[in-house]
Amino acid sequence: MAARDYGQYSGLARAVELVGERWALLIVRDLLTGPRRYGELAAGLPRIPTNILAARLKELQAAGILRRAPRSRVIVYELTPFGRGLEPVVLALGAWGLQAMGDPRDEQIVTPASMAIDLRTAFREDVAAGLPATSYSARIDSADLFIRVDGRLLDVGGGTGRADLAFAAGPALLRIVSGDLAPRTAIETGAVALLHGDAALLDRFATTFRLAA
Amino acid sequence: MAARDYGQYSGLARAVELVGERWALLIVRDLLTGPRRYGELAAGLPRIPTNILAARLKELQAAGILRRAPRSRVIVYELTPFGRGLEPVVLALGAWGLQAMGDPRDEQIVTPASMAIDLRTAFREDVAAGLPATSYSARIDSADLFIRVDGRLLDVGGGTGRADLAFAAGPALLRIVSGDLAPRTAIETGAVALLHGDAALLDRFATTFRLAA
DNA sequence: CCGCATCCTGGAGGATACTG
DNA sequence: CAGTATCCTCCAGGATGCGG
Fold this sequence. Notes:
Two copies of one chain form a homodimer. The first copy, chain A, has about 210 residues and is of the alpha+beta class. Chain A has helices at about 10-20, 25-30, 40-45, 50-60, 80-85, 85-100, 110-120, 125-130, 170-175, 185-190, 200-210; strands at about 65-70, 75-80, 135-140, 145-150, 155-160, 165-170, 190-195.
């Protein structure tokens, strides 16, 4: 069951033995936003073969990273405290990867869980601390995300609600975060469609969530 | 040349597409401590197939993570600024992995590059700031490491020199860092052999390099 | 000898069908 | 819905060859 060995006695080698297999870190990321059922995980991981998902879940469970937990007649997968220790890793890797995003291709999707982590990655709490509390309702590729910023606190979750600014966007939202796309341009080109609220709030959004140089 | 796609438009997915392949992060780690030649990389990566090393180097070069640079008639591989951006990732992963180190097996080796990163991972600069400047000369598995701690500054490099404390140790040195092994016990069991200097300095070492809870 | 390229084999990854 | 079983593809692993 143990992953293949790298023949090195070091922290990094051990880490990649545990979570270096394909899909593993993406599964961990999706679980960072809360427990998930098998089908939810499969839906968030486009085209992952179901046998691979099952195998990864077993391996990650054997490694003590996640556990199967019964929740009122259904099984959910949730991270253990050890697995939650991967949060800095996921955020650091995500921040690095955001610098190298190419143009989104048609087949590439954005899931609530992935966008939630990307936003947490790019969240600048020092900037947010100087701004009034703001809530955003974002419809990303037919999935709803509710984002609440209050001082240094960030809360990103699914679902909808009454927000200061509501907008719909595709993958291009990440290009705003990575600094490749100006909010005004995004609105003009239709990459972001405002549903209600002041357009200036999208500038605030872009200021709050912006990858550090 | 691009690695296989995860079908997601997110920072993490992009990152694992670039450095998620087997051996890739270990190569990056070794290059974090300085440029290396092909043979040096191969020596530090136990049993990596040479064709895999060549393939990874090409992929990482194509991704803009490293570059081949001629250095006085020989080729060395060095990280680009973009590749050096992976340092927080490597440190975070290493810190997490250090919590899950099992007992070292005979076939597992410790290289200067891996130990250097592990020490940087576990370096507690707040603690070091309150201690006098200290230098350590460590012989790890027939490789020499010179460690200089001065206030919040840490310098780890190869080679030897006149140090306040000189000792020889095997992989067990990491067990001290991860808190599984007390310095006194290490000396008593012979896991660490003092060459010269005060044994109390090994306590200081263990205090300076200790994985945070 | 160093720095790869080539060849071959075994096992992991990928797509699909199937079952409790 | 939550996986298991099956088949096939492809990459990693290992040995070897070869040019500078």
